Amino acid sequence: MRPRIKRSFTRDGHDQDRQKSHRNKDSRPRREDNRRPEGKRAGEDRPDRRRSRAGQEDKPAYGNRRRPQEHGGSQGYGRAQGHGTRHERTERSRNGFKTDRRRPSAPRTAPAAPIIIKEDDGLVRLNKFIANSGVCSRREADEYISAGLVTVNGEVVTELGVKVKPGDDIRFNGERLRGEKKVYVLMNKPKDYVTTTSDPHAEKNVMQLISRTLCPERIFPVGRLDKSTTGVLLLTNDGELAERLTHPSYQKKKIYQVTLDKNVKQEDMDRLVKGVSLEDGVSYADEVAYNGDDRSIVGIEIHSGKNRIVRRMFEALGYKVRKLDRVYFAGLTKKNLRRGQWRFLSDEEVVMLKNNFYE
């Protein structure tokens, strides 16, 4: 595959000249009402007082070390200039003149927060129960609940967030829902099959390829592939996992092999990575590469979940897609699966999908 081209973003650096332009503390102009008497400045009677830059003689070399005991006590050198004793600073702080900007330290022994153990009452949210039954995802279940299509113990429920017990009579469109075991099926989708659970206008449906004897559970496709698109397709009754694999925020990786009507130019390959303007915004390919010497066959890696995104990107560049085959989806491939064949995922593959092991 062709190396990725990452989009760079410039960031303004810090203005170092501005940081260097801080004025010296001794050079600040004094207010008239706070002017000290002439010839009498704070610490002037001390032999080791730090002088201004105008007079560099007799400048002590204490740095940030503490003062010697005979030169003003144990206070820090910088803090002892004109601020008085510790007792005086404390009094000023009490009167509203706060001089210490440090954050007050936390108490050494903080009381431990009580541990609250949440009891498991056996209740689950209604949308989760519907999703676990294999009907749809949680988001779609919320829409069905709001539309009044769900009943609990004979009563229509339209409020979101309602919790139910496993023994409740929960029905969707009049049909009772039962908790089923989770099933995960991987299929190599053939051409001319519609990716949906039911379509009265479609002659061929991917659900017709699943044996109801081997898989009696009600499953549904995760995402959609066009009628003429082939390749990796996952079917399951785990609505929560299906939502994670299809939601745009999770950015699951997909790789397609695209066969076009003509050779793809190098500048168009670069445009796919830099971004192609479509009617719904700019879309990017994470990586593109030629498939060997045939430059009419291209491999493209993408994370976008927009509808018909690969076809629309090539059509925007003036190409016609003849074949589109998905060879990778969220870590799953069609290895050892011929067109139209399917198999159950292994326990290891299911764990990796649930733990977001793959992109």
UniProtKB/TrEMBL annotation:
Biological process according to GO: enzyme-directed rRNA pseudouridine synthesis
Family statement: Belongs to the pseudouridine synthase RsuA family.
Protein name, as recorded: Pseudouridine synthase
Compositionally biased intervals (Basic and acidic residues): 9-60, 85-103
Keyword Plastid: no
Region span, Disordered: 1-114
InterPro entries, sorted: PsdUridine_s_RsuA/RluB/E/F_cat, PsdUridine_synth_cat_dom_sf, PsdUridine_synth_RsuA/RluA, PsdUridine_synth_RsuA/RluB/E/F, PsdUridine_synth_RsuA/RluB_CS, RsuA_PseudoU_synthase, S4_RNA-bd, S4_RNA-bd_sf
EC number: 5.4.99.-
Keyword RNA-binding part of the UniProt annotation: yes
GO MF, one annotated term: rRNA pseudouridine synthase activity
Pfam families in the cross-refs: PseudoU_synth_2, S4
Enzyme class: isomerase
Transmembrane regions: none
Record's keyword terms, sorted: Isomerase, RNA-binding
Domain RNA-binding S4, residue spans: 124-185
